[in-house]
Amino acid sequence: MATSLITLIVNGVKRTIPVEEEEKLIDVLREKLHLTGTKRGCDNAQCSSCVVVVNGKAEKSCLLSIQGLEGAEVFTVESLASQNKLHPIQQAFIDAGAVQCGFCTPGMLMRIYALLNKTIHTSKEDIRDALSQHLCRCTGYETVLTAGLLAQEYMLKNV
């Protein structure tokens, strides 16, 4: 495989990284940038544990070829908290009791982040639809939906 350089903006920092032609974004994030908050689940886009935000859109990083992402802006779960303060979405998940084992939580957090950053005044149905793309063995999903709604409420207070 041929190695090339790609430049991405990851969590607000411009990074130039050597990559292989067939590499997936999840591998670059976890193995080369050591951002292990993004979880590898099924590797075939079924579980959504690997969701990150690419150019403002929630994307399954296990599917995304690193080729074609030159200059992309990527946000991972590591970008949410700042200066030891949780992001309102993270706090909402804690307050709603939506964090179980935590494996699928980063993907859910990032999907809600993308949704609420696109349109903070979204509907309960939109939040439910967004979360329906995630598989979780630990929750009944009601607490996750509650967390999404609570995150919206917390973020509206900060607008």
Taken together, the total number of domains comes to 2
Q: What is the CATH T-level topology of the largest domain?
A: Ubiquitin-like (UB roll)
CATH architecture identity of the largest domain: Roll
Topology pattern, helix = H, strand = E: EEHEEEHHHH
Largest sheet descriptor: 5 strands, mixed
Query: What's the tally of helices?
Result: 5
Percent helix among the residues? 25-40%
Low-confidence stretches: none
* Oligomeric state, counting identical vs distinct chains: single chain
Question: What would you report as the Rg, rounded to the nearest angstrom?
Answer: 16 Å
Number of strands: 5
CATH homologous superfamily caption of the largest domain? Beta-grasp domain
Question: Reading side by side through the largest sheet, how are the strands ordered?
Answer: 2-1-5-3-4
Taken as a percent bin, the fraction of beta residues is 15-25%
Label the overall shape.
globular
Which class do the helix and strand fractions yield? alpha+beta
Distance, first to last CA: 47 Å
Q: Would you tell me the overall average pLDDT? A: 93
At the first level of CATH, the class of the largest domain is: Alpha Beta
